[in-house]
Amino acid sequence: MMATKPAALGGGARLHPPVLNSKHLVIEVRRGELAMNEFTCQKLLQKVKGSCRVPDIRPNGFITYRDCKQLLSDSDYIANVDTRFECILVRLFPVSAIILHDSVLVVANGNMSMDNFIRALCDITRDYGGGRQAAQSPAMPHTRPSDELDGSIDYTLPFEVKALECCYAAALSHVEQEIAAVEEKFRVVELMVGEKRTYQDINMILHQMKQPVVNLGEILKGFTDMMDELLNDEDSMKLLEFESHMTFYGPETLYPGFEERVVNRDLENLMEYFDQEVDQMARRARTLSSSLTELEKHITVALAIIRNEMMRLELICSILSTAFAAGACLSGLRHAGRAQLCNRAVRDERRQQFREQSRRVHRDFAHRTGLPLLRDIPGQASHISAPRLNNHGASTGRDARRR
């Protein structure tokens, strides 16, 4: 939007010149044609003052440098419609414009597509003939022109109000498109939740949607406050028509005529219509914000349930692992006891077999030699005992050599 040339400093750094000297792209729409110019704040002020047709008015009636500076500032989400002599300063994000008696100066804004807006302003300035409405008789401010004029043009509202209506419509259309885009994205998120997509992807999209919803809420809050202030102040409503400017900004003797003037009923209906549109969009924005909050709560509860299930599963696994470990220990002890008992039984059995074999050998020896058995000799049986066996049931070395 700005065409500035950076200025060099001594240390090699480069800074942009002050905002006072920066240029802004301003589109002038007059008589169905448009012209693009780059104006500084001072040049824009001179342009607006140059279009004034009556020099003898109150000093506070003209547009000031401060007014132009506020209009060209980069402060977003500010809604304001202010009047100066034969000009209306419109600040309805993203529309910034100055409505004059025969033309409209629009500050270019990259946040919106301005094609339809500029085309509508061209049609309005072409139809009204650049001041044809101002040439009407003051005694009939709200009547249709004579038959010599084009009957297809509705002059119920003056040129400046029609241009203001176009600015309102462009701003609200942009906001409505933003709300529709966020609503569509929210429906996609709801489908993702229904399809059980990963919560990480869903939370990422929700985080990206938060800031646009907050911005829409701020914009619509500014619109609502501005519309309430405008509708509750009859003087502000009267000043939206340039026909009342001379009685308000002119000499003091004309001011009583401004107090006696009645608010244009068509203008009041138009402002009430836009107020209803703003209220409806504000409700949609609040619904979006609450829906995002509820969806985040739903995801938080779902994650908490999953976490509790995981903790319970982990606890069950810990109990099972402890039970398995205890069972393994008990089973090992039992198997060790059984093995020890089996080894003892084997040793006893082998020892008994050895004793039986020894007895048979002694009996055979006694039978062949005719000698009595040792057990039959008094005092000798007690010296014969079973051989010592090792753990595997085999006899020790001394007994083996004795055999």
From TrEMBL:
Its main location: membrane. GO terms for molecular function: magnesium ion transmembrane transporter activity. GO terms for cellular component: membrane. Gene3D superfamilies: Magnesium transport protein CorA, transmembrane region (1.20.58.340). Keywords: Ion transport, Magnesium, Membrane, Transit peptide, Transmembrane, Transmembrane helix, Transport. Coiled coil: none annotated. It comes from the Eukaryota. It is found in: Membrane. This is CorA-like Mg2+ transporter protein, putative. It comes from Babesia caballi.
